[in-house]
Design brief:
The protein is 18% helix and 20% strand. By secondary structure, it is of the alpha/beta class.
C-alpha cells in the first residue's frame, strides 16, 4: 500500500511517503509528511502558554542570557522567556517532551519556538451593541 501525504496531494505535489502493509494492496492511503506536520504543530496554540506566539527557551547554563532576554521582552505580552529545565537520564530511552522543534539561534544559547495563540477578539467599539431593555426595543430611544 502506497502512503501519500494528504496535504501534499491537495497542493498538487507528489507527496510519496513510502510503503506499508499490506504490501500486495495497490491502493493508496494517506499520512502527513514531516514538513506539513511541523506546519500543523506550529499553527496550534501552546497548552502551557496559550497567549504566547514566541517562546524563547534558554540553555540551563545561560542565566545571564535569560535575565537579559527577560528584560528585553518584559513589555511584550506575546513573548515568553523560559529556562530549559529538562533533565536527560541514562536509564532507558529519553522521551521527548517538546513536540515542536524550535529553531536554534545561530548565536547559540537559546531556541525559538513559534505558536499560534488562542485568539481573544476584543469587542469592536464600532459595531452596534445589542438592544437593551431600556431602549424599548428601538435602536434610537426617544
Amino acid at each position: 500500500m502506497r502512503v501519500l501525504c494528504a496535504w501534499c496531494c491537495h497542493e498538487g505535489l507528489p507527496g510519496y511517503l513510502g510503503e506499508r502493509e499490506p504490501l500486495d494492496n495497490p491502493e493508496s492511503t494517506h499520512g502527513v509528511c514531516a514538513q506539513h506536520k511541523a506546519r500543523l504543530l506550529e499553527s496550534l496554540p501552546s497548552r502551557s502558554f496559550p497567549e504566547v506566539e514566541l517562546l524563547i527557551v534558554v540553555h540551563p547554563h545561560g542565566a545571564a542570557l535569560y535575565e537579559k532576554l527577560t528584560r528585553v521582552f518584559a513589555g511584550t505580552s506575546r513573548v515568553k522567556v523560559i529556562v530549559d529545565r529538562r533533565v536527560s537520564s541514562d536509564v532507558g530511552p529519553q522521551r521527548a517532551r517538546r513536540i515542536r522543534k524550535g529553531t536554534m539561534s545561530p548565536l547559540g544559547g537559546w531556541t525559538i519556538v513559534r505558536f499560534t495563540p488562542k485568539l481573544r477578539v476584543p469587542p469592536d467599539p464600532w459595531l452596534p451593541r445589542p438592544l437593551s431593555a431600556s431602549t424599548n426595543g428601538t435602536a434610537h430611544p426617544s
